[in-house]
Amino acid sequence: MKLVAVVVNAAPVANENSDGIPTRVSYLSSCGSLRGDVTVVEGELASALIAIRENIGDDALLATRGPLDLRCIVHPQAAREEFTPSAPFLRYIDASRLSGKPFKSPSDDNSALLTDICSILTQYSPDKIGSLVEDIRVGFDAAVCVDSCSLSDEVMCRARGLPWQATDAHVAHFFAGLNIAEGGIALCLSAEGRRNGEALIRFENNTQRELALRRHRHFLLSRYIEVYRATAEDFLAVAAGSSSEAVDFVSRRAAMIVRMRGLPFDCTEDQIRSFFAEVDAPVVNEGGVLFVNRPDGRPTGDAFVLFEKEEQGMNALKRHRHTIGSRYVELFRSSQAEVQQVVKRSGDVSGGVGGGAGRRDCIRLRGLPYEARVEHVVEFLGVHSSQIAPQGVHMVFNSQGHPSGEAFIQMTSEGASAAVAASAHNKFMTIGKKQRYIEVFQCSPDEMNLMVAAPPRPPAPMQPTPPSAAAPLILPPHPRIFPGLGVPFGMPQYWPYPSPPVSPNMLLNTGGQILVTGLGIHVTPADIVAHFSANPDTLVESVEMVRWATATTPGEALVRIRSTRDPVPPPMSLSTGLPQLPLPFPLIHT
């Protein structure tokens, strides 16, 4: 066994939150005999490691004064410079574990320090030294985690402040040099199903976890990351899954998982395979598509797809925002933990008001006049009002306490709700001189709870609207619509579980809503998306057809948009990112 004592000097860099850049690597290659000269290599890290490797060979065993030199200096800096250290820098022996006391810090002349390390090693047999060898794992290995796993709190930590576009690969990059357990990275989702900038990480042992805590407020993609201790319960709540279907899916051999959002509810597996075949991205043949359904079996519009090769998965992501049928589909890279988390959430929607995943004994009214009260809703239902459950009318208000134009009603049975939806849909409600036609849909208690039982989010501070936002498509201040970008949405954020996370090219600065009126009878959501997408600064997040056009009535649509610019608020003149011209003639009903 060829032992080589190594000491790494790190010079400070401009950013005090960073580890430091190695400028000098000193080593003593004849460590076992205490004879030989100390060699010092200076310069860029990559060239320094190559020079050392050529001198000592791949089979050498490095001896260090502790875990910091390799795990916290060499490997993190190599990750920043985008290269991967190879043997012999993937294993080492910590001489401080043999001496029982820490060594002194590196200096300009590390000869004495290297000699001290070697003198400790000469006191032990090769077998003893070999038993203390530690390996450094590069990258991250995915694995399935089930809720029956028994884990320790001593190996868990939580990373907070991750960029919204961060993946498990980014998290592994941030903790380069530390051994993350298989399947040990779980990105957290918010109550709305979006990645919330947090991740839970499980390391191989407590030593790795303690070293991870030292990276508190280090940087990833220009964002500083906070690192805290976590518990096994926290990790299992996010990473573990109890659905056998999800476990079977993530257990299949694949290089990449891609999540699809916004699928038509009648989308089939064959359509998905054809969708990706256009970019030479074949889906795994058997069990390569997993549709996410609600507890009552209805689709959510989400699906996960497996690809055998990384290259195929990257090709698949090129189909982002292309259409299946009349729906544009969003794609982004996913992970095994996220699959299990989403599938688990889709089946764990809270019972709240009324509960019951399988029943569809509720109705949803949309398009109510803002003056509508409970008595108006009861009058609108006519003879069917006798089948409303006690205290079963729930008016929906936005985060500012104003009516949203929607209501949910609990009926006494599924048959009653179906009868109301069939007879009252698209009929008119008259209040004073106002007459509005009302859309009526049958729904489940779970869907109602997502809107009614969940407390509204507190609104963000209002921002002034720039003069340039006063375009023909921007409404004046209104209980439902707020002008401009960078302001809170007036309507409740309604996303059926599992609601969509962030698209790969989407930066989560605050968006805005536009009500488009006067739509022609042939206008589809795809036409509206195409119109707004002509502006490179604007990203359409969703289109909701408030009213479809008929031969006598123009259509209306709510468009949710976001700016593609940096999340840092841009100058006021650029803060809208909206088209400043009227819609083209074909979109206007005449």
Automatic annotation (TrEMBL):
<protein>
    <recommendedName>
        <fullName>RRM domain-containing protein</fullName>
    </recommendedName>
</protein>
<dbReference type="Pfam" id="PF00076">
    <property type="entry name" value="RRM_1"/>
</dbReference>
<feature type="domain" description="RRM">
    <location>
        <begin position="256"/>
        <end position="336"/>
    </location>
</feature>
<dbReference type="InterPro" id="IPR035979">
    <property type="entry name" value="RBD_domain_sf"/>
</dbReference>
<dbReference type="GO" id="GO:0003723">
    <property type="term" value="F:RNA binding"/>
</dbReference>
<keyword id="KW-0677">Repeat</keyword>
<dbReference type="InterPro" id="IPR012677">
    <property type="entry name" value="Nucleotide-bd_a/b_plait_sf"/>
</dbReference>
<dbReference type="InterPro" id="IPR050666">
    <property type="entry name" value="ESRP"/>
</dbReference>
<keyword id="KW-0694">RNA-binding</keyword>
<dbReference type="InterPro" id="IPR000504">
    <property type="entry name" value="RRM_dom"/>
</dbReference>
